[in-house]
């Protein structure tokens, strides 16, 4: 992280130094923001559903899926900050949790 803020970021002669700086500055937060959008979409689609529809389609309860999609939003929020050690892992986990809801559960409980 000191490499990023020490002013050496774009003074590197090698291409790997510049790529590393761009990775930390732009690519990872942009990836986390896209993952955050997917997670928020899953949460917004889960909130208005009737809890009886979850039980009728033999899925977990609405509270479980609200917790999963809300947790996905929180995990992806942690990934927006580029200095954290899990800035790539948390958004990936969050978008997987949200995608499971969007791909498997939401079509079954749509109504």
Describe the protein.
The protein is mainly alpha-helical and 111 residues long. Helices cover 72% and strands 0% of the residues. The chain has 5 helices and no strands. It has helices at residues 2-5, 15-46, 51-56, 62-78, 89-109. Helix 2 (15-46) packs antiparallel against helix 4. It is elongated. The N and C termini lie far apart (48 Å).
List the helices and strands and how they pair.
Blueprint: H1 2-5, H2 15-46, H3 51-56, H4 62-78, H5 89-109
Task: Please supply descriptive tags for the structure shown above.
single chain; mainly alpha; 5 helices; 72% helix; disordered N terminus
Q: What gross morphology would you assign?
A: elongated
Overall pLDDT metric: 82
Q: What portion of the residues fall into strands of 2 or more residues?
A: under 5%
Low-pLDDT ranges: 1-7
Instruction: Work out the oligomeric state of the chains in this entry.
Output: single chain
Spell the H/E element sequence: HHHHH
**Cα end-to-end separation:** 48 Å
Q: Helix coverage percent of residues?
A: over 70%
Largest sheet: none
What is the gist of this entry?
The chain has helices at residues 2-5, 15-46, 51-56, 62-78, 89-109. By secondary structure, the protein is mainly alpha-helical.
